[in-house]
Fold each of these.
Amino acid sequence: MVVPEKIQERSFRFACRIVKLHQHLYKTDESARILGKQLLRSGTSIGANLEEAEAEQSRADFI
């Protein structure tokens, strides 16, 4: 039986892949660097959003 991965583990692995992609894009032209910066910010913010959702104290905090 295959046990599904936790969302935290999946988001961490995704963020690691985003960092590697950013490193690759940084070595290319200027437009790729600009897109890479945005990709890095958005791709790694998933983990922060998950942490915020888990730390919620009330329904209003969660929303």
Amino acid sequence: MIGTFHSLWKFEVLEVAIWSARAQDALQVLQLQPGFLRASIMHSADETRLYLVQTDWQDVGSYRRALGSVEAKLGVWPFLADMQDEATAFEKLLEMNVNEVTRFETSVNDGS
């Protein structure tokens, strides 16, 4: 079983209302793409200017195709220009809850 794919975009935000509106606009573009599962906007309790946007995808291909779409190039990439430059895409390999542990196979080629 292949794990779902997740993107984590970190931002330092000075103008919360403006940034929040831009974030929601960008997420609405992605919401219409095949393979989109959900998105969240999170705020750091420790660093008040730090915000995180998480998007969840069916698989790595869905994520890459969504970001490569014309709609994303126009409506998402300008928003991502202010993102902190660090790794953003992660694949779920293990999920644990109170009753069980589920392990997933990777779908990402690591080049080895």
